[in-house]
Structure formats: C-alpha cells, structure tokens
Amino acid sequence: MASDTPETSQSATPEAGGEFADIVHELLADPIGRAGYEAHRTLNMHDGNRNLAVIWFDVSNYQATHLKSITRLFNENPSPSDYYIGYGKLLKSEGNEELFKRIGIQGDGPLLEFAAVNDPRLDHSEAIIYKKFLYTVLRSLGLGHKAIERLENRAKAGFSDRGRCAKCRKLTSAIDENNKGKSKSNFVSGTGYATKQEKAESANRVNALNSKAKSILNREHELAGQQANTALPVSGDTQTPCVSMGNSNKRPIMAMTTPLAAGPCDDDESAQPGALGQALSANPGADAYGGVDFSTLEMRYISDSSDGVQYAYNSQSLPKGYQQDTALGMRMVKNLGSDLRTWLVLDPQKFWVNLNPTEPDRIVDSALGETNAGRAMLEADFQMKRTSAKILHPDSATGKQYWRQLKSSADGSLCFSSRMWIVPGKVEVRQDGDALYILKAQLDVKTQSDHIDDPYAKSCNADPATNAHNENLERTLVLPKVVQAVNTAPEYAPLRRAFMARIIAQWVRERHQQGNRTSFDSLIGSKNLGPAKMTGDWRPRKVFDDYVRSYRNKEFDITRETNDGRFRRVTRYVYGGADLTNVRLTGVSSTEMRKRYPQLAQSARSSTDRRVTAADGSIWLGGSVQAPERGFWDDLKDQATRLSGGNGPLLVVILLALGAILFGFRNRPSRTKRPAA
Predict the structure, then answer these.
(1) How many whole angstroms separate alpha carbon 120 and alpha carbon 578?
(2) Does the pLDDT at position 4 exceed 80?
C-alpha cells in the first residue's frame, strides 16, 4: 500500500499479476482497503483518471436529532451530479465486524460512510465528501455549522485510490489526530499521490489495481453465493448446487437459494429463484435489497415432505438510512446450514460449553469446538460475564441498588462467587403435518452461588444466610436484565441464530425417531461435520484464555468511591457456560396460533415464491426445491419402520413386500389400479 507522499515514476504496464497483484492482495487484507474496493463495486467506477475516496465517521452515541437528520436522506441509490457520483450510508457492526475493529469503533456504532468519485478537472474526491456531503447536504437536512464541524472531527478512517494531496490531508486531518500513537495509519491508499506529469502513469496504475481487486471480489462473492446456495444440509451430494429431478442416480440436495450459483442443473425448471434467492442475488446498490436487515434473518418455517422442502426466513426491515449488502445475508444463510448440520450429526449430549478457569481441558467437545455453533456458544458465554458486570456498574440504577443491598462477608469484604449459564428457554412451535412454524424461541439464564477452587480467587467467607441473600439479589435484580440482553442484544445474535437451527434439528430428530422419513436421515448421528467444520485459525482455547485473562485481571469486579473518599470493591467470580443439550418443543394448537399469530402461516408459505411483508412490518423470504420421486422400496422401508417401532426387523420388510404383491400396496395414490385377476 502506498503512502500519501508523491511517488516516483514506476512501470505503467497494467499487468494482472506481479506487482499489482501483490498490492491488491495487501489492500484487500486490510478491512479499510477492502471496504474501499467494495465502494468501487457499488459505484461501478472504472475510469482510472478519476479518483474514488471513502471517509468513515464515528456517530456512536450521536445526538438522536442529528442522526435522524442524516438518515432522512442517505437511504437512496448513489446520486450523480454534473461532476461527481457518490453516496452516504450508515453501517451497523454486524456484517462489518472487521472494519469496526480496524477503525476502533466499539459496540454497534453506527458508522457513517461517505464515498465519492470526482471529476479531476474540477475537484478532488475528498473535497467533494466534505464540501458537497458534509456541509451542503447536511446543512439542508437541518444540521447547524457546529454540528457539522463536530461530525468532521469524528472522522476515523479513509480510503483513496491515490494518496492525499496537501489540501486533502488538511481536510482529513481529524483522521490523523484521532489515530495518534497507532502504528498503522487509518488512511489507506492504493498508490501515491501523482503530479501532473505522472497523470497517465497514475491512471494506468489505478486501472490495474481496480481491475485486479474487482476480479478477486467478484470471485469471492460468487463463492459465497455458492456456499449459501447449498447451505441446508440434506442427504445427497453436497457439491451439487441444485436438485436433480426425475429418475437419475443422483440423490437430491436442498438448495436454499438456487439462483446464486451456476451448476449442471441451471436449466432445470425446479431451480427457480425463491424470494430469498432474489434478495441475495441483487446487484450492489443502496436500495437493491428491498430494505431487508440481513442480520435479523431467522428460519421460522420449514416443510419436509415427499414433494420436497420448503423454507421461509423472517427478517426485520433495515432502519432508514442504513445499508448492507448480500455478503452478510449469504453468511447468515450459510451459518444456518452449518449450524443445522452440526446439531444433526453430533450427539446432543455434547451440546455444551464450559468457561471455568480451573478446567482448561473441559472447554467444549472437540467436534463441537470446530464449528460455528460451538464458537457462538463460547463467545456468548464470555460476553454474558461482561454483560452482568456492565449491568452492575455503580453509575447505573441497577448497580446502585445492588451496592445498597449486597451484604458483606464475615470479614467485611464484598465478595460473591456464582455459576451462570445459558440454557434453552420457552420454545413454542406449531407442527402441522410435515411442516414446522417456530413461534417463540427464547433463551434463558440460570445462576447459583458456588465456590470456585482457583488459587487466583480470594476466598469468599460469607455465612450461609449472607450467601443466600446475595444469590437471591443476583437472581432477582441482575438475572432478568441478563436474560433480556441474551434474547435481544446484537452481540448475542450468533447464538440466537444457532439456537434457531437447534430447534429445527430437534424437530427433525423427533420426526426421524417417530419413524417418519426426512431429507436429513443419512446425516442424523453420522458425526460427519463436512462443510460445517470451520476453516481458519480460530480455536476454543483463545476464548478460554481471553476469559481467564479478564477474570484474573478483575474485569468483572466493581469498584466505587465511598463518601469518605475510600474505594471499595465487589469482587465477583463468575463462571459457567452454555448448555443446549435439551430443547423442549411446546406445541401450539391451530386455533391458538391463528389467534396469537394471525396470517403467519400464510406469510411463511407465500414467501417461498415472493417476498411477503407481514402486518407487523417483518419481511418473509423463502424458497422451495422439489425432491425426486421416491422409489417403491423407500415407501416399503418407511412402512416397515413405522410398524416395527423403528427397529426394522427383516421379517416385517419381507411381509410388506409380499403384501405389496398380494394386496396391491402402492407408493403413489395416483397409480392406476391393476385389473382384478
């Protein structure tokens, strides 16, 4: 990557590999550089004589009135003018995690992103962002000069095809001021700033870099589409991106978003795009995805019959002014498939994680620890400890009450040790034949006082009565707020999605155990993680080590200053885990479902063909794939399983086969009857 200083003359040959390939790979490895080239894809800018720049502003905790003014406009398509094209949009953390981390944004943001491509004869792209967007546009939205100036000072990062000139460096000086002391600059450029004499050479270099970056990003998006396309694991060849129809020897797989990947079945009429596929195959652009918040995608309906599989995702609309792209949606769909496969192939008794500083060898089952579901459970458990500490901060209303009511130990110290762990809560479903509607899916949190045998932990010498009082205080005052966070806060969204897949897997298992044929039979209990096994360098031990470091560095302790100027500390030892081994599905009658969730069934079923917006404003996106006709022998085995209670003795199969010959058992009601002998 280049600095902002003018560069010396270099080769202008726009070769696809070599020097330019190395530069592009380095830029795409940097979240700022990657986001810059994603802006290129959105604006579809190919002219190397022009320059694209992107500036990011931290609007976390920004005044609500000012944020509302900003979001009033920036939810539209990129807007062209006489000499520039650009856009403004708000970004949430989910889907932009690496960018938030690189820039240094805590929490869910939002982050305000401005991008512009200039006409070099008139102005620089950085100047357009500040003069045309930050001042002219924001002024028209009602923000005053001081408010805009405060926003300018919250510039956190930038990208430019070329390094900054002296004037542009002055305009963006807040980026440098806000990142003083960092070893890595938050302003990233593809090449250095060029003088007028180097104009042609610079344009060639920019074209070469853009072309290479576009090629790499297009391949990545295509691969992500293919992975989402085959996300839901069912029997058959997981490498086939569509369903083979008819009586061929190929076994079916269920494609969740059939139009996303090219494959041998592209001409198959069964592989028509559903509503989800249409949304995820949209082209980049502010309004391309219909306002769907991909981070809220949850599969709430699935039907698994002999005619195939139907499914529908429920999602919320994206808040006005925010934008996402299909990469996040594809990731959500792919993770759902990975999580569902995990819950199907592994033993449910191993669906637990444990963060106890004295048990480094019992963090998670080795197989579960290789999956996205295991990662979601571990990271949520660690986050829960931080959530409880935040709730008890002395400056909060809950924290003040906790301090007032917490009883001291016999030696006068304030100390409490407890085990806290996440478990399934109330799950309400409507089972209608071979279809499942998930109506409610809540997680719960349990807690109990418990001594931890850790040499780093100070002994909590509370008498039983004091201990019981403090345990009840945590259960009644703290626990409800922790449960609320686990079920609603953005940082627990991966766990909630994994839990939704756990519910579907439980339903599939129960149907299988009852003798019903499912599309997942060959996977259940197979231990074959296949594509659900994560790649990369993430390991469960990393979460454990981070937890132990926080635990021993007193991150969960609470300190306050008393009236006499002294400091007192509540020492808290919190450990526990997450346990999803047992999920109970509570059935809801059709009458009760219609009363409490009117039109839900219709919305879910209809969304397999088209997008449906429900009465509550939620968006339903679904799809369906037909399965090949089942053979006569498959039906006989199903009947044998039902009659034998799942044991399947050979005698029953033989009797069924004989009965078929003698009494005319048929695998399809539509078949023509044999004439009587």
Answers:
(1) 57
(2) no
Helix orientation angle between 493-513 and 372-391, rounded to the nearest 10 degrees: 130
The tokens for 484 are: 């609320």
Residues paired with 292 in a beta bridge: 317
665: left (phi over 0), alpha (psi -120 to 50) or beta: beta
* Total residues found in the chain within this entry: 677
Three-class SS of residue 650?
helix
For residue 332, pLDDT over 90 is answered with no
Q: For 612-639, how does the pLDDT look when each residue is reduced to its tens digit (9 = 90+)?
A: 998 888 899 988 765 544 444 344 445 4
Task: Note the pTM of the prediction, 2 decimals.
Answer: 0.73
Average pLDDT of the residues in 204-227: 83
Residue-by-residue DSSP string for 199-256: HHHHHHHHHHHHHHHHHHHHHHHHHHHHHHHT-S--SS-TT-SSPPPTT-SPPP---S
Cα 113 to Cα 87: distance, rounded to the nearest angstrom:
8
Rounded Cα distance between 545 and 646, Å, is 45
Return the half-sphere exposure (C-beta side, CA atoms, 13 A cut-off) of residue 185. 19
Residue 40 CA, distance from chain mean position: 24
Per-residue pLDDT band for 498 (boundaries 50, 70, 90) equals very high
Listed in sequence order, the residues at least 6 apart from 46 whose beta carbon sits closer than 8 Å to its beta carbon are: 207, 210
Residues with Cβ within 8 Å of residue 363, at least 6 apart in sequence: 353, 354, 355, 369, 378, 540, 541, 543, 544
Q: Provide the pLDDT for residue 558.
A: 66
User: Which residue type occupies 157?
Assistant: A
Q: Which of these, 376, 168, 296, 233, lies nearest to 621 by C-alpha position?
A: 296
For 266, the token pair is 């592209």
State the DSSP code for 531: G
What was the pLDDT predicted at 322? 76
pLDDT tens digits along 247-290: 333 333 333 332 232 233 334 444 445 788 778 776 655 445 56
d(CA 631, CA 327): 39
Other C-beta atoms within 10 Å of 116: how many? 30
Rounded CA-CA distance 192/188 in Å is 10
Residues 224 and 261: beta-carbon distance below 8 Å: no
Which tokens go with 237? 């060849």
For residue 41, name the pLDDT band (cuts at 50, 70, 90): confident
Three-state DSSP state, 167: helix
- Cβ atoms of residues 440 and 480 within 8 Å: no
Mean pLDDT over each residue of the chain, to the nearest integer: 77
Considering Cα of 607, then 613, then 615, then 618, what sign does the dihedral take? positive
Report d(CA 611, CA 623) in Å as an integer.
10
Give the start-end residues of each E strand in 371-505.
Answer: 414-432, 435-449
Top mean-pLDDT range of 60-69, 313-322, 612-621, 642-651: 612-621
Strands 85-91, 298-305: pairing is: unpaired
Q: Where does residue 464 rank: exposed (0-12), middle (13-18), buried (19+ CB within 10 A)? A: exposed
- 21-30, 48-57, 418-427, 620-629: least confident range: 620-629
* CB-based contacts of 602, cutoff 8 Å, min separation 6: none
The CA-based angle 613-500-446, given to 5 degrees, is 125
| Ranges of H-type helices in 11-121 | 18-29, 31-43, 64-71, 97-103
528 three-class SS: coil
Of 220, 242, 225, 258, the closest CA to residue 329 belongs to 225
- Among residues 96, 136, 98, the alpha carbon closest in space to that of 113 is found at 96
